[in-house]
Each structure stands twice: as structure tokens, then as C-alpha cells.
Design brief:
By secondary structure, the chain is α/β, with parallel strands linked by helices. It has 2 domains: about 160 residues, Rossmann fold, CATH 3.40.50.1970; about 200 residues, Dehydroquinate synthase-like, alpha domain (Up-down Bundle), CATH 1.20.1090. Helix content is about 50%, strand content about 10%. It has 16 helices and 8 strands. The strands form 2 sheets. A 6-stranded parallel sheet has the order 1-8-5-4-2-3, sandwiched between helices.
């Protein structure tokens, strides 16, 4: 039983912070949120998003209407890219400073919302920049209020205190985690996600899977993490094929979004380890790599490394994906190959070599895991000793 792998003498901190409006039509709640912001004295807002989806999904119509109705002025930064970088965060923050923004709304998937979190900090620290923030040159204790309007079902960033941004000139992709960047409000509306392309539907859902596998197996995980992991994986295994077959299946989108949200809560509590620590160098070197794809390529090799340390937990949470696991450490290959086979059934078949990486990249990637600010901390939370040899082996096995 997985319960035996929880140390009941450890005192755990369990976090559930953000107010989330969840369900079909939740975007209409932006009206209530805008009214609340105005009542808080917020009359100018910085909005951060990408190029198209904030409009094509219909989210923008509701946001613009509600801000105008409450006489809240806004300024729009729509240059956030997948795997956003510090230049974008600095540009947006500077725009917001000059405008006098008192809050930030992020509209999109993980990239715009994460970038919005960084800008929200910099609006409170006008003498700092995003590179200083992501190289941990200062520790922020405040940020302007953040509103997250989520357009994907994968990252969970709308309910957690994490943000990721790339420092491209160093090929670093660090993650920060501060209480001040919990969104005040979040909107999770599955109707905004029916136009999500098939490959993105797959990759963001794989992101959620990785969140809970890691969170349930770190050295600081708690029973809440395991509970959320079991339900997240059950829901993704059941509903991802349905969403891939019919993008307009709102029930499938609803439960994938719910899985993503509780997965965000899971790793907000249990944190992360190998998969995210090793993926960040992959997309730090190649910013065009989709985060969820990178995670999926690494996952089977990571299961192979960690199963021996957490066999009962992994057997319990992976059961919807891999039948017949008993929690015996000797079934490590069955678990690893079972995860690989499931990924193949939903369409993720790529290896690192397919994405242009070569084996000579392994040393560079391994070095980046331990050099990139914050990633060595994630590695230290793995249930097995996160040595350079282990990291190198995971990359090697993923080719």
C-alpha cells in the first residue's frame, strides 16, 4: 500500500489558495472579478497574452466588455510566446509601469500566465528586472494582484505559486515559486479550449500527468498529492482519447481541465523533481520545443529510475495507465514500458533524436540541469539520489 511510503512523523504544508471559477461559461465571471478589482481601487490593468488565442477563443470579448463596464483602463501586451523569455517580461513590465498598472491579467496557457506573474512582481519592484528575478538575485515578497484566464488544460499555473521564464542568452529556463504570485482569481472554462489543436491537447495533458507523478514521489510529498495524482491520471486516461477524437467534446474538456487544475494543486504542495528539471534544459536549448512533448519523451526513463524507491505509490497512481502493477520493485521495466506504451497509444511517440537532439548534447544538457538556477533543488527532491550519472542516464535512455 502506498500509505506505507508516507512518513507520518513529517509535518506537511498543504496549500489551496486561489479562488477559481470553474465550468462551462466561467468566463462570464470576469464581470464579477472586474467589479471586485474596481472596489479594491484598481483602475488600470496590464493584460498579457499571446498573438491570437485570447481573441479566437472568445475570451477577449468578455474581458474587454467587463473592464469597460467598470471603467478600468487597460494596456495590452500581446507578444508572449511559448516558452516566454525575460525580454518579454521586462517589456511588459516596463509598459505596465509607464501606464500605472495596478494589477495584471494573464490570458492564455502557461506561458502568458507565467509571464504575467513575473511582470506582477516587477511592477512592485521597479528597480529590478526579469533576469535578476529568475537568477534569484532578490526574493520578492509582493506582487500586484494577478488574474489568470486559462486557455489550456495542462499547466496548473492558474492555481499555483510557480512561474517559468527562459534566459535565452544563457540557455537557462529557471522556475520561481513565491506566495506573492498566487493568482487572486482564476477562470477555468472548458468552452474556451475546444479550438486547442490536437497536438496541444495531447501535450498539455501529458504535462498534467507529469506534474502528479513527480509531486506524489518527491521527498516532501504528502497523502493529498497521492490522492490528486490518482484522480488526475484516471481522468486523463479516460478523457484524453475522447478529446483527441472529438475536440468539441465539452465533457472531455471539462474533466481534462479539472485534472490539470488538481494537478497544479498537487505539485504546488509536493513540488517536482526529475522530469521538469531535465525538460527545462531541453526547451532552454530549443525554445521551439513544446514543454509537454519534452516531458513525455523523458517520462518512461524517469519511471525506470524512480520506481524502485516508490513502487507502491507509483503502482497505485499508474494503475489506470498500466494494468497489473503490484508495487514490487522488480516490476520496474513493466512500469516504464507500460507508460511508454500508453504514451504511444495517445500519439506521443517521439524520442529526443526525433527532435534534433544528438547524443553529444547529453553533457551540455546535464550541465544545464545543475547550473540553471533552481533546477538542482528539484533534482534534490527526487526519491533517488539525483547524481550527474543518473541525470545523464535518463537523457541517454530517452534517445
Amino acid at each position: 500500500m502506498w500509505e506505507k511510503e508516507i512518513n507520518i512523523n513529517d509535518i506537511k504544508e498543504i496549500r489551496v489558495k486561489t479562488t477559481v471559477y470553474f465550468g462551462i461559461g466561467a468566463i462570464t465571471k470576469i464581470s464579477d472579478i472586474s467589479t471586485q478589482l474596481k472596489n479594491m481601487g484598481i483602475d488600470k490593468i496590464l493584460i498579457m497574452t499571446g498573438k491570437n488565442s485570447y481573441k479566437s477563443t472568445g475570451a477577449w470579448d468578455h474581458v474587454e466588455k467587463s473592464l469597460n463596464a467598470n471603467e478600468i483602463e487597460y494596456i495590452l501586451y500581446d507578444k508572449v510566446t511559448p516558452n516566454p523569455n525575460v525580454v518579454q517580461v521586462d517589456e511588459a513590465a516596463e509598459l505596465g509601469k509607464k501606464f500605472g498598472a495596478k494589477a495584471v491579467i494573464g490570458i492564455g496557457g502557461g506561458s502568458p500566465i507565467d509571464a504575467a506573474k513575473g511582470a506582477a512582481i516587477l511592477l512592485e519592484y521597479p528597480d529590478k528586472n526579469a533576469t535578476e528575478l529568475y537568477e534569484f538575485n532578490f526574493t520578492p515578497e509582493k506582487a500586484v494582484p494577478i488574474i489568470a484566464i486559462n486557455l489550456t488544460h495542462g499547466t496548473g499555473t492558474e492555481v499555483d505559486r510557480f512561474a517559468v521564464t527562459t534566459i535565452e542568452d544563457k540557455e537557462y529556463k529557471p522556475a520561481i515559486a513565491y506566495d506573492c504570485i498566487y493568482p487572486l482569481y482564476a477562470i477555468d472554462d472548458p468552452a474556451l479550449m475546444v479550438s486547442l489543436p490536437k497536438n496541444q491537447t495531447l501535450y498539455v495533458s501529458v504535462d498534467a500527468i507529469n506534474h502528479v507523478i513527480e509531486a506524489a514521489t518527491t521527498t516532501v510529498s504528502n497523502p493529498f498529492d497521492v490522492l490528486l495524482a490518482k484522480e488526475t491520471i484516471r481522468l486523463v486516461v479516460k478523457y484524453l482519447p475522447k478529446a483527441l477524437e472529438n475536440p468539441n467534446d465539452l465533457e472531455a474538456r471539462y474533466y481534462l481541465l479539472y485534472a490539470s487544475m488538481i494537478a497544479g494543486t498537487s505539485f504546488d504542495n509536493g513540488l517536482l523533481h526529475f522530469t521538469h528539471a531535465l525538460e527545462h534544459p531541453l526547451s532552454g536549448v530549443k525554445p521551439e520545443l513544446t514543454h509537454g512533448l519534452g516531458l513525455g519523451m523523458l517520462l518512461p526513463s524517469i519511471i525506470k529510475q524512480i520506481y524502485v524507491a516508490k513502487p507502491n505509490t507509483l503502482a497505485a497512481i499508474l494503475s489506470p495507465m498500466v494494468e497489473g502493477l503490484t508495487g514490487d520493485p522488480s516490476e520496474v521495466d513493466k512500469a516504464s514500458e507500460g507508460v511508454r506504451k500508453w504514451l504511444h497509444t495517445v500519439g506521443l511517440t517521439e524520442k529526443l533524436s526525433d527532435m534534433g537532439y544528438v547524443e553529444s548534447d547529453i553533457e551540455k544538457l546535464t550541465k544545464l540541469v545543475f547550473e540553471t538556477p533552481g533546477l538542482s533543488l528539484l533534482v534534490s527532491l527526487a526519491p533517488v539520489d539525483g547524481t550527474e550519472d543518473v541525470v545523464r542516464q535518463i537523457y541517454t535512455d530517452s534517445f
